[in-house]
Specification:
alpha+beta; 2 domains; seven-stranded antiparallel β-sheet
């Protein structure tokens, strides 16, 4: 019993350190992005009998590319799914179990993707057909919220 309790204590210490490291790195960031990834699933049709379930934060990988337009991706036939992205890959990061993420980035315009199954996924655009855009300015942390609604019905 003491061994199990000891292992549980070590697990709590490690996960606590990881969480505080995320907060510490966010406190030390000069510029970049932070936000949350959430997934929306199931029937989202309005109904007087029930409220639709809210999005739930999830752990997933976020792929950061330079600003990417629709002519720089291989679409599957219907957005928001893409087989390939033909712009410069910058980096990828993983959100925590609640969907929180933060990373430093130089000033610039970027596109953010996640993956659903084996396909890249991004469900927003700006007026210039840039997919899932986010602007990072000098000495600023831009907030981004990503909603994955691929498994939701509207």
């Amino acid at each position: 019993m003491k061994a199990i309790f000891g292992l549980f204590y070590i697990y709590l210490m490690i996960t606590g350190c990881c969480s505080s490291n995320n907060i510490q790195s966010l406190n030390n960031m000069q510029q970049g992005i932070k936000g949350q990834v959430a997934e929306l699933t199931g029937n989202q049709m309005p109904s007087p009998e029930r409220e639709p379930a809210p999005p739930k934060g999830i752990k997933t990988r976020i792929y950061i590319y330079e600003a990417t337009s629709l002519n720089q991706v291989d679409a599957t036939g219907s957005e928001p799914f893409y087989r390939a992205i033909r712009s410069n890959f910058i980096k990828s990061i993983v959100s925590d179990k609640n969907g929180f993420f933060a990373t430093d980035l130089p000033p610039g315009k970027y596109s953010l993707f996640t993956k659903v199954d084996d396909l890249y996924y991004a469900n927003s655009f700006d007026g210039n057909n840039i997919i899932a855009p986010v602007q990072v300015s000098a000495n600023t942390i831009s907030e981004v919220n990503i909603i994955i609604s691929a498994k939701a019905a509207f």
